[in-house]
Specification:
Rossmann fold, binds magnesium ion, binds thiamine diphosphate, 7 strands, 5-stranded parallel beta sheet, 11 helices
């Protein structure tokens, strides 16, 4: 187990809450009609993005999906990047050319989220293969949902990684649903971990709402991988606390399920832990909250002041100059 300092625990708390606030703010902007396209929330799943990304090293790569804004923020993106991008503004990461989460930065080790489900595994397996060939102590992390594990690219990537013993970590987000399809209609085996084991990939299942459990499992797996141990999966059990996106009211989810998971909110659980162990004072907590509110306020103002892109430049940035 990696021992975390008080400061690191406070960092984790900051990122969890910042992730939540960014989500809430995006919903607010969406309801004001300021968002171009849909809003995909990671509500209730913040501990997975935060716990896993915080456990990585600067040279590592992540291939996130729609609910991993928290991981992208830990890799250096700021809330303003998300606000600008979702509002299609000129100063956003893609200059207003795309909506929602399709942006990345290889310098920060972030592959732009890929919409075609399961491709994160194949792409991250490719990054891991390059790292192995170049003998770089880099690991690649693929985020993948329960639904995405039924696609071809998931299986191809898993198999390649297992056979080649690649430094690929698959962070499985088992949130019980893929759109309106419950997980028991998604796979006949009991878990994502079982699917991984069928390829010869070591896999553990952890409480995805416990940020420390996700952090420790990621740290342990990546530690082994840096020594040549081959790919691993950390399956994180959680619940998607909203519909697929803001347009979906999730009426197909039994209310009891939401009630059960609301009591297991990842921020609430971590607050309880920090309080019980006396690891954060009330003043430290409010200082973090104030910092987040200030950052959100400033970044929303910045994004709202940014113009829409100039139509004359619409055809720019399509082809690589290399
Ligand atoms: C290959 C492919 N098929 C279908 C879709 C449409 N689609 C987008 S998200 C989604 C559900 C994804 O479920 P899951 O992988 O469990 O992730 P979650 O939304 O629960 O985080 C579907 C069916 C897609 N993007 N790509
Ligand atoms: Mg799912």
């Amino acid at each position: 187990m990696t021992k975390l300092t008080r400061q690191q625990l406070h960092d984790l708390y900051y990122y969890l809450r910042l992730n939540r606030r960014v989500d809430e703010q995006l919903v607010s902007l969406y309801r004001q009609g300021k968002v171009v396209g849909g809003v995909y929330s990671g509500l209730g799943q913040e501990a997975i993005s935060v716990g896993s990304a915080y456990a990585l090293e600067p040279q590592d790569f992540i291939s996130p999906v729609i609910r991993n804004a928290g991981a992208m923020i830990i890799r250096g993106f700021r809330p303003r990047d998300l606000f600008l991008q979702y509002m299609g503004r000129r100063d956003g990461p893609t200059g207003g050319r795309d909506a929602n989460t399709h942006f990345g930065d290889l310098a920060r080790g972030v592959v732009a989220p890929i919409s075609m489900l399961g491709e994160t595994v194949s792409v991250a397996a490719g990054i891991a293969l390059a790292a192995k060939i170049k003998k770089e102590k880099r690991v690649a992390v693929a985020y993948v949902g329960d639904g995405a594990t039924s696609t071809g690219p998931f299986h191809e990537g898993m198999n390649l990684a297992a056979v080649q013993k690649l430094p690929l970590l698959i962070v499985g987000e088992n949130n019980g649903w893929a759109y309106s399809t419950p997980v028991e209609k998604q796979m006949a085996v009991g878990s994502m971990a079982e699917r991984a084991k069928a390829y010869g990939i070591r896999a553990v299942t952890v409480d995805g709402n416990d940020v420390l459990a996700v952090y420790q499992a990621t740290r342990a797996a990546t530690g082994r991988m840096r020594k040549g141990g081959g790919p691993e999966m950390v399956e994180c059990l959680t619940m998607r606390m909203k519909g697929h996106a803001e347009h979906d009211d999730a009426r197909y989810v039994p209310p009891k399920v939401f009630e059960k998971w609301r009591k297991r909110d990842p921020i609430l659980l971590f607050e309880k832990y920090l309080a019980a162990k006396k690891l954060m004072t009330a003043q430290q907590k409010s200082a973090i909250e104030e910092r987040i509110e200030r950052e959100i306020r400033e970044d929303v103002a910045f994004a709202e002041a940014s113009p829409f892109p100039d139509g004359a430049n619409a055809r720019g940035g399509v082809y690589s100059k290399n």
